[in-house]
Amino acid sequence: MQLLYPIGLLALAGLIIPVIIHLWSVKQGKTLKIGSIALLGESATASSKSIKITDLLLFILRCLILILIAFVLAQPFIKKTSAGAKNSGWILMDKSQFYDIYKANRKTVDSLLNLGFELHNFDLGFDQFLLKDSLLKTKKFTELSYSSLFNQLNKQVPSGYSVYLFADHRLKNFDGNLPKPNFKLTWKETENTDTLKTWSTSFLGKIYEGKSTPKQTSYSANRTQNLPIISVLIYDPTGTDSRYIMAGLSAISDFTKRKIEFKNWNTPAIKKADVGFWLSDQPINASNLSKLKDSASFLNYEKGKVVTENSNLLLDENRNQTVELKKRIAPNHLKGNTIWTDGFGQPILINEGNLKRNQFHFYSRFNPQWTDLVWNEQFVKALIPIVLGNQDAKDFGFEDHSLDQRIVDKTQFSESKIIKSNGYNKTENKNIDYIIWSLAFVLLIIERILSFRKKTNLDYVKN
What we know:
Blueprint: E1 2-3, H1 16-23, E2 24-26, E3 49-51, H2 56-73, E4 76-83, E5 89-93, H3 98-104, H4 106-114, E6 118-121, H5 146-156, E7 162-167, E8 184-189, E9 197-203, E10 206-212, E11 217-221, E12 230-235, H6 241-256, E13 260-264, E14 273-278, H7 286-289, E15 292-301, E16 306-314, E17 322-329, E18 337-342, E19 347-352, E20 358-362, H8 378-388, E21 425-431, H9 433-462
Helix pairs in contact: 2-9, 6-8
């Protein structure tokens, strides 16, 4: 038996209490009269005192109760070491792909099962399943990366176990370095029967054809696309900020090979526009809004108190695209999703997408006296979500498609041979304080019964 908190044994000092109670006893003396001096007056009264243990059984019970309480405070436990089951281990594989994996690796899987390994689903929870249950069709519930799954495995796989993993090495399953496993891992790469995947994706208003093999993924634009002209309305009473907007949109046109047509908002138009820039703090009325398509996006300057500050304009949530911000408008409209902020977290651009049109509220100005955004290389990229839709920045590399077949270089993995597990020693700390509590409770009941009987007997003698 070992103690988790040995300092709790200091409570044994409380044993002095029952010792004092039982050790000190004062008895009344007897009156003796001496004949030779009886006529001289009252004889003296003598008291006899004795120091000895009285009620030995009660004394022992009370001491035992205090000792047991002290041990409970010290948290006793028994360290139990036992030999674990031999040949313990897991076979991990995606249950939704069990048929194909088992067909290609039947001999290996059967030999592991004969050694005592258990089948577990390589997905969140790592549920165990039997060979007979594997014939039932299942779906993959999550798309967790290998890094996330390995973090969970380190917490769930028992110490000393071996794990045999059947999984591919596709790049899309890795979101960083794998954590070092706390168990013995043998990774068996599974082969894909279909090594070529094709798909179509839309990016910056164009349709691209994607082709992916284990070695590379490539995209090519569909040359037969007949993309419509993007019509843009601009309102700028000062005539200053619109020049930067037009320059940025021209760069987008050159990059995407899309024709962009600029028009003044006050110019009569036959067709409704796709995009609008209202570069004024004057409120936009219903008549002007009617010149935009129902699906149009438009940006408007917000009106309010001008705040001068020396900060940065943060263009993405990762805070790695920043430009100098000199002035801003104190925000008065906070409904929607914050797109840009300053260095203090105050919103600079808010997208209110729950309206009929996709509206952007801008709490600054494109004028260089307010911000250096128009001189920054990120200016054109920042305008793309407004002109061509809310395109995620991560899609610029086309690297997150589910059909991506690229694999990690095999030299980064080493496949081990199947090793027969020799078992492991399992150490368990068994708490026994509940036993001590139970024993102390029983002793307390016995002590109370004896004390009650003693008190009753004393009252009877006095009467």
